[in-house]
Design a protein that fits this description.
229 residues, mainly beta, Immunoglobulin-like, 2 domains, five-stranded mixed β-sheet, elongated
């Protein structure tokens, strides 16, 4: 008679308490630059707690919590303040896991992330390090000449600027006829010395510029542009 021996494999599953799961969370928020000075960055640009590089407005950022495989029970609160102690909020808190914010005013904004485990009976929460966003004061430098001759040197009339939130420029000829106009969306394109698809003659043209900085400074400029080929 054959005898059978039965073997049982017992799997012992141990569930970690929520507090131990919580201890494994690495909270390391960061921000990715979507647009700065109205322009998309040519290469990835991130901001971490401890970074202190001044930035130009308008600055559009996407904030990430920096948590790998976060539990579904986590609740997020992004906080924004004028001071490092977070006593003076300057924006309403955001409650998404990731959030997008555009900064248009000069000065500093302090950002931190508060994460709470809603699946625990205990009050488990963690506060991240602080991300500091510093928007520089505005600048506007306007040249008075350019040479659109196709040699690749000074072919386009462009202003140099920092932290402008609005901009408009209009060029007129000596008879007051409008030659070209561009705004904030085309500020980096400038003027190539053409009107209605044709090159304008050499000479002196008149330009009117109105702009506003992130620091509230209003720029109003009227002056000459010399075209030299």
């Amino acid at each position: 008679m054959l005898s059978r021996k039965l073997f049982y494999i017992v799997l012992l599953c141990v569930a970690l308490p929520l507090t131990e799961v919580w201890a494994q969370i690495d909270l390391n928020p960061y921000a990715v630059v979507l647009r700065e000075n109205g322009v998309e960055p040519e290469k990835p640009d991130t901001i971490h707690p401890g970074d202190s590089n001044p930035r130009s407005a308008p600055l559009e950022l996407r904030f990430f919590p920096g948590i790998e495989s976060p539990p579904a029970t986590l609740r997020y609160e992004w906080q924004f303040a004028e001071d490092a102690g977070f006593n003076i909020p300057n924006h309403s808190p955001r409650f998404d896991q990731e959030t997008v914010m555009t900064f248009e005013e000069a000065g500093r904004t302090y950002i931190r992330l508060l994460v709470t485990d809603t699946g625990s009976d205990e009050e488990n929460e963690e506060v991240s390090g602080t991300i500091v966003i510093q928007i520089t004061e505005s600048e506007l430098d306007i040249p008075n000449a350019f040479s659109p001759n196709g040699d690749g040197i000074n072919d386009v009339f462009k202003v140099k600027y920092k932290s402008l939130v609005s901009f408009n420029a209009v060029v007129f000829n000596r008879w007051g006829q409008k030659m070209y106009e561009w705004g904030m969306d085309q500020i980096d394109d400038g003027w190539d010395g053409t009107a209605h698809g044709h090159q304008v003659p050499n000479g002196v043209y008149f330009i009117v510029i109105e702009a506003r900085g992130a620091d509230g400074v209003v720029y109003k400029h009227k002056g000459d542009i010399n075209i030299l080929r």
